[in-house]
Design a protein that fits this description.
This protein is an alpha+beta fold and 109 residues long. It has helices at residues 2-21, 39-59, 84-90, and strands spanning 26-32, 67-73, 92-98.
């Protein structure tokens, strides 16, 4: 969606700034799903979601070497109600940072 792309563009700008200051930082894109479907299906879906976000970050100029993916499938829901609003919240990609020292994250512009 346009809203998701806009959010990822903002993330990418912050990530570029972090990586410029701290090139050893690793960026991990986590794929998440709602509870519907089998565990295997949801793990694959989460991986596709994470891979799509990683690919988009790469097109925005983030080094592929800094990017990795992981799928949590349905295992880490942010909402536990069985309804469309909740399922929509659980279908997401999250961007996390890993570093040996504290990461200085600039304020979004």
């Amino acid at each position: 969606s346009d809203m998701a792309r806009a959010s990822l563009k903002k993330n990418a700008a912050v990530l570029k700034s972090v990586l410029k200051d701290q090139p050893s930082v690793k960026v991990r894109v986590e794929g998440h799903c709602d509870e519907r479907g089998t565990l295997e299906y949801n793990l694959a879906l989460g991986e596709r979601r994470a891979t799509a976000v990683r690919g988009y970050y790469a097109t925005l100029g983030i080094s592929k070497a800094a990017l990795s993916t992981i799928s949590y499938g349905e295992e880490r829901p942010v909402c536990t109600e069985a309804d469309d609003d909740c399922w929509a919240q659980n279908r997401r990609g999250e961007t996390t940072l890993k570093a040996a020292t504290a990461v200085r994250v600039p304020l979004a512009q």
